[in-house]
Every structure is written in C-alpha cells, then in structure tokens.
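Researcher: Quick sanity check before group meeting.
Model: Go ahead. Protein one:
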Amino acid sequence: MVKPSRIILVGLPGCGKSTIGRMLGRRLDLPCIDLDFEIEKKIDCSIKSFFQKNGEAQFRNIESLVLKDVLSSNGSFVLATGGGVVLKEDNRLLLLPEYVVYLSSLPGDLLKRVGSDDTRPLLQTDDLLVTLSVLFQTRHPLYELVADFVIATSGKSASKLTDEIISGICL
C-alpha cells in the first residue's frame, strides 16, 4: 500500500480525533487541520453558540462548505473531522476518495471522556449514555461506509492508537 498523502479521522465525539490528528501530523510531518476549528474561524464564534442561535441544520450546512473547501486543496494533511460530518450524503461522497480512519469507540468509553465537557452541543442532555448510544447506532454504519481503516479505541492511549494507524497505513 502506498502511504496516503491525506488522512481523514472520523468517529464519535470524544473518540480522540483532534488529539490523534495532532500526534499523527507530528509523526508524519504533515499539518493537522481540525475541521471544528476551521468552522469556528468561518462563523466567527464557537460551535456551541452557533448551534444555540441557528440550530443543527444550519451548522451542518456550514460544516459541509468548510469540508469541501479543505478537501479541495491540493496539500497533504491530517484532518480531524467533527463527529457528525458523516450525516450528510454530500460529505460522505467527499470522504470516499480520501483515506479515512474510523476511530471506533463504544458509548461507555466515551462517557468517561466527555462527561464534563459542556462545549459539545449534542451532548448537553440529561442521560449522556443514552445520547451516546443513539449517536453510535446512527453514525457507526456511516463511519464504516466511508472508512478505509477501522481501529477500536477501547483501552488504548492516543500514542498507541497513533502507532497502530501509522503501522496500518505504512504496510
């Protein structure tokens, strides 16, 4: 397999996309782009604020525009996406030709990581485990659909996951 020049990370909120993206970028000497950060630059406010004012549908439209802009560039990079990027078919079609790594995490594992995080709009619920379970049921098949490489995150450090991804792409 030829080492991909661009690596796209997908997965549920809290699975480690941003952290692993930065580590992969450093290890592979590639810039790491965080899609959520790029979105916040475009909307000039936090995603949480945008969600509160404009709702999820408007956010998903902006997310699609920013994803398209990032993927239309010719450079090599690691891209950490937002957890819901796979919800729109147009986004999935943009991701299919790319090398996509799905960081597969179980809801119970994610609960420990995102339980006190109040910056994630969809996770501001009374029963976070139920919310994460619903997100998993809805999104897991979509992540698998776009993924070239699926890696289970349970019980693994970001460093270990980064090593496994590098081993997987450099076979």
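Researcher: Fine. The other one?
Model: Protein two, sequence then structure:
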Amino acid sequence: MTSPNQLLAFDEHPVFYQDDNRRYRGFNPTSKAFLEAKFDVLLPAHLVKGKTILDLGSCYGAAGQWALFNGAKQYTGVEVQQNFVSQSRQWLAHWGDQVEIVQQDVRGFLRAAGDQSFDLVLLAGVLYHFVDTKQIIDEACRVSREQVVIETNYPPSMRSGKLPQNVAMTEYITDQEVNLDHGNQSMLGVSATTSISALDILFRLNGFAKREDKLSFPVGPDTVIYDESRMGSSDLQIRFAVRYYLDAEQALTTLESTLPDHSGQLRSWETDPLAQARTSAYQQQAKSLSSDAEPGAWQFDAQVAEVFDGIARREIPDYLRVIDLCVRVIDKGENRQPKIIDVGSATGETLRQLHQAGYRELYGVESSADMIARSFDQATLIHSQAFPEAHGPFDYVLNNWTLHFIRNPLSYLEAIKRAMVPGGTLILSDKVSSSQRTHDLYYDYKRANGVTEVEIEKKRQQIEGVLVTYPFSWYLNALNNLGFEQIEVINANTAFVTFMAVKPVS
C-alpha cells in the first residue's frame, strides 16, 4: 500500500510526466498515477532509503526523482540516448551531487563498473532490448551489493498460451519496440524476452534469489495498464517484475565449472530411478513404433508419463487456457489459501501453476504411479483410483480431462460433492460425445499441432472402450441431479467442454 507521503514524489516536479513524450502513447501512456504506481512496486521507500541506486536505461530519470525523494543516498542513471540524458540532468538538477547521469550503453557501463558498486540495480523495461540476456544479468549481479530489480516482458509464446508460465526459456523476436527520445515514435529491432523461471536460474547462477513471488502491478485506467487482456489477445499482463536478493546459499553451479574436477551431481545410468525410467520408456517407445506391434489399450504408464506434457498440449484443445482459467477462478475467490485438489493430476502441470500463483494447500489424486513419480512434489500427491474423500473437505475440486476415463463417473461425482465444503466450487472438463463433423474438426486440430495420421489412428484404437464420452446434456443433468448450483460452461472448444458448478451452502 502506498503511503500518503510517497504520493508526493512528483507533485513539485510534474515535468517527469507532463513533458515525457511517452504520454502520447495510445497504450500505457506516462502519467503521474502511472509513475507513482510503477515505482511504488519497483522501488518501495523502505528498500531504497539510504541506498545507492543504479538505473540502467534511465530515460528521463523518473526513477531517480522517486528514489531520492524516498530517501535514497545516491542515484546513477545510465542512458544512451542524448535527449533523455540532457533532460534528466536538467530535471534532476535540484538533487545536486546526489545524482549522476551517464551517457553510455548499458553493456559498456557495466563492464567498466567495479564489483558491488551499488546497493540496488534497476533494469526496468530494458532487459528485453538485448539478445545477450545472461551476460547483462551476470554483470548486473556483479555490480550489486544487495538486490537487482527486473521489470520486463513475458515471452510472446507465453502470452499467447502456447507455452505454460513455468517454462524456463528465452524467446528471440524480430520486432521488439523501444521508445525513442524525441517525437511520438518508437523503433523496432531484434531482441530477446526471458521467462521468470529462466531468470530464476540465471540469477541463482550469480548467487541471487527471490524472497517472494513476482511483484504485482496495479491495473487501472490511470495507473500501470500492462494488461493485454483488455485488447483480447492474452490473459497475461504484458510485463512482470521480480526482485532478486544476494543469497549465496541459493547459488547454482554450471556444467562448465564442475566438469573439469567432476564436482557436480553424479547420476548412474544403471541405478538412478529417472535414468532407468527413461531407458524403459525409450525401449517401450521403440517397440510401439515397430510395424509388427499391436496397438494395445491406452495406459498411463511410464512411457506415456515421459511424454505426457507434450501429448496434452498437442491433443487437448485449450489445455493451457483451461489450467490458467482454473487459477483465475480461484484468484477471484475470497479465500486466500483455499484447499484445492486436482483430480487426475498427471505430471502436475496444474499444481505447478497453482503453486506459482501463490497457493500452498494443494492436493493431487492420480491412479497412475508412473505419473505421480514425475509429478509436482510440493503438493500432497495421492495414489488412488477412488476420490480421496478422507483428505477433504475441499474448497475447489478441479476435475479436468479425467472423468471420461472413470468407469462409474456418477459415483465419482457423488464422492466429490461429499468432500466439498458448502459453497465449494467444482471445475469439470471432459471430451463430450459429438457428431462426426465435430470429431473431424478435432482431428484437424491434432493435425495442425503436428500429430500424424498414423498417430491419430493408433490413438483412436488405443482409447476405444477406455475413454468413454457422454453427451453434453448428461453432464448438465448429472450436476443438476446431484444438487449442484450455478452450473455454467466457462470454456468449450471442439468437443471439449469445461463446466463450473457450486455446492449449495445449505
């Protein structure tokens, strides 16, 4: 929460938003509320007081005005564009020798700076301008004594839902936008965007780690509108922010540093369970690809567990979207730490997403021991064919793409309802019975995702009699007859439907 005192940072110096050419941007324009909300997240007063601040890509130096107003000892801004440098020197002149604005490229400045020269290093809206992400982070960590704050963009593939939020990746793009220091225009060029999970690795390699999840920007008409969902293209905000603290105990080591003396973690090909599972999976896969092999029934065995995440993304329409939808439904509830169970938790993708969102009372029930062996181990995992009523009651039950594998689905739903708190929410996704035309559309979806005709036919034979579909009306009648209320469809795509229902309070 911003204190009344912090809201005064730009009151006597409105030039930082009134003369900023970015105020003309149609999307996310600079304003007083924008600056206050942004810097209250990135540079809260209790973390900058008495500190030396390095601002890389400092633009007009608004971060300097905020930090010094809130008690920072010294502010150094590094900016390569001449007009930004001239204006920020003029606008920050009232702070005297507490300010230094350096006209230089970020990479060159960092190379020349001494070790641990600054308490806090800020990379706000600048890291994604570079293609050598690791080198910039390495240098930023080297010159920092305490913390590094990153504000950057989500990779486009993550915003579009093609990849889950927990993937460690850097995505290179050819049309990244950068603001110019004059006129009402920007420039496009090649750059890279890095996910939070990848940043976590890169910072831990330098002995820096998070103490909290990603920082949260307020979203509103006059504040930080990093929210692309308003334009209908993504459920994620465009940007995220993360704060990393110096923490040597969290440091990771790399292969190149441990290989010469074999000081890294060793794994035996013969005795390590994961290596053995992979060997077994490869052998089974080779056998299944043999022209003489029989299709056989579909089983969630070690072979399937090895490649399940890829199968789900390729063959279940809106797989990642529905998982994110579950997280957002729970986010809108009043209980900050509800008790949640994921039915058919498989390798734990939904549990990972929930944990990343801050939820900790997580349960997963799965009938396949091979799936559990590869699942998310920070949740309570239950190996069971039946619904684990004894572990309830649950505030949320997520039953996605599982009920159609259960032989007595109605009894399973009855057990779920018994184990829910009054007012609890059920989210249920399944493949429903459909016409041949709709089924053909589903096969087209698979083909578009790289599934071959041979794979489609083999899978069709394998799941025959194993995956049993029911009409759309069956689900409505079943939920209604069991006494659920507020039965709604919250997602539907090519024979896959997601229902939401609530257990009555009384």
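Researcher: One line on it for the slide.
Model: The first strand starts at residue 52 and ends at 56.
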